[in-house]
From TrEMBL:
Keywords (A to Z) from UniProt: Cytoplasm, GTP-binding, Hydrolase, Metal-binding, Nucleotide-binding, Ribosome biogenesis, RNA-binding, rRNA-binding, Zinc
Subunit and partners: Monomer. Associates with 30S ribosomal subunit, binds 16S rRNA.
Binding site for Zn(2+): C288, C293, H295, C301
Official protein name in the record: Small ribosomal subunit biogenesis GTPase RsgA
Domain EngC GTPase stretches: 119-264
Encoding gene (name): rsgA
Pfam families found in the cross-reference section: RsgA_GTPase
GO biological process: ribosomal small subunit biogenesis
Binding site for GTP: T158, K159, S160, D161, G208, Q209, S210, G211, A212, G213, K214, S215, T216
Biased composition (Basic residues): 342-359
InterPro entries documented for this protein: G_CP_dom, P-loop_NTPase, Ribosome_biogen_GTPase_RsgA, RsgA_GTPase_dom
EC number: 3.6.1.-
Length: 359
């Protein structure tokens, strides 16, 4: 079984025994297994294996049959899916196979739905441009988002060829990223790219602000010019939205990279990532006298002591509290939405039962 999986044409993109087992019941019906490389306007590109040639090929398929109100479970770039190639007028995605990981942020609106940025990723590459002073609060937010996905975060400080104090900035970023590798690279000169390629195994997803150099990194990793690149504005070093959709590109040595549009807002959709992004605060809090310490007025509070002596910067503590408040709000909104959905479901079932009784 293992040798068969290793020899599979899509093994380099992550096809494995678990996915083969999940797809097995569907294979008997003439469906094809594949991975979504791009999705837009109800259609997607799916990389499948041609049954006749045994070679990878791309199908354009309709996703409407697996798209619903629950946005978190809708198909996304990186998903493994089952496709009916015989459907007309175009092939149709019939099933989304179970995900191992997913980057999910809160939608850009005020409701509590989540938006999936990429699925089945092994490493989240957080691109931070050295051409402007990094926003450490945003780095912390992106780290929480990355940890929440279930994948391994890796911070990539880009455009090192444009600055002379990259190592000082790197030290500042490392201070807010406990346990996370931070690389300084330049896609233009190639500096640091070998180290990045060595760590960017499996499927990687690039996230960050517009102008952080994500598309340039994608091209450098994939060895192509597939992603359009634009220069940032020289006035304020702000980026333009070059990438408008999420796209998966295979890498020459195996694996894949997913480029994503620049993130202006990074709302979290869940809270476990916060604990990992602020693991240093959790370690400090473990020394508080009381297990349920609120870190406000209790005696022998290790957090208050660390704030007083500068061990824990006030800025980082405030960032932690802000993300916790946002997460609490999302949790309350999500619970309310689930309760409303259950109420609607109960109401519809009750009406159906009454109708059946009258008949």
């Amino acid at each position: 079984m293992l040798s068969t999986i290793t020899a599979h044409p899509l093994a380099g993109l992550g096809w494995d025994e678990d996915r083969a087992a999940a797809f097995h019941p569907l294979a008997e019906t003439g469906l094809l297994a594949g991975r979504i490389t791009r999705i837009d306007r109800g259609r997607c590109d799916v990389l499948v294996v041609d049954p006749e040639t045994g070679e990878p090929t791309t199908l354009r398929a309709d996703t409407r049959s697996v798209t619903g109100a629950d946005t978190v479970n809708n198909p996304c770039t990186g998903d493994w899916v089952a496709v009916d190639p015989a459907a007309r007028p175009v092939p149709v995605v019939t099933t989304v196979l179970p995900r191992t990981t997913a980057i999910i942020r809160k939608g850009a609106h005020k409701r509590s739905e989540g938006q999936v940025l990429a699925a089945n990723i092994d490493t989240v590459l957080i691109a931070v441009s050295l051409a402007a002073e990094p926003d450490l609060g945003r780095v912390e937010r992106l780290l929480a988002l990355a940890w929440e996905s279930g994948a391994e975060p890796l911070i990539v400080l880009t455009k090192s060829d444009l600055v002379h104090d990259g190592e000082f900035v790197r030290a500042d970023v490392e201070a807010v990223a406990p346990g996370v590798t931070v690389l300084t690279v330049s896609a233009e000169t190639g500096d640091g790219m070998d180290a990045l390629r060595a760590l960017a195994t499996g499927t990687c997803a690039l996230i960050g602000q517009s102008g952080a150099g994500k598309s340039t990194l994608t091209n450098a990793l994939a060895g192509t010019d597939a992603m359009t690149v634009q220069q940032v504005r020289t006035v304020d070093e702000k980026g333009r939205h070059t990438t408008t959709t999420r796209e998966l590109l295979p890498l020459p040595a195996g694996g894949a990279v997913i480029d994503t549009p620049g993130l202006r807002g990074v709302g979290l959709f869940g809270g476990e990532g916060i604990e990992l992004a602020f693991a240093d605060i959790d370690a400090i809090a473990a020394d508080c006298r009381y297990d349920d310490c609120s870190h406000r007025t209790e005696p022998a509070c290790a957090v208050r002591a660390a704030l007083a002596d500068g061990t824990l910067p006030e800025r980082r503590w405030e960032s932690f509290l802000k993300l916790q408040r946002e997460n609490d709000w999302i949790a309350s909104r999500t619970d309310a939405r689930l309760r409303a959905e259950r109420a609607r479901h109960h109401k519809s079932r009750t009406k159906a039962a009454r109708k059946a009784y009258r008949v």
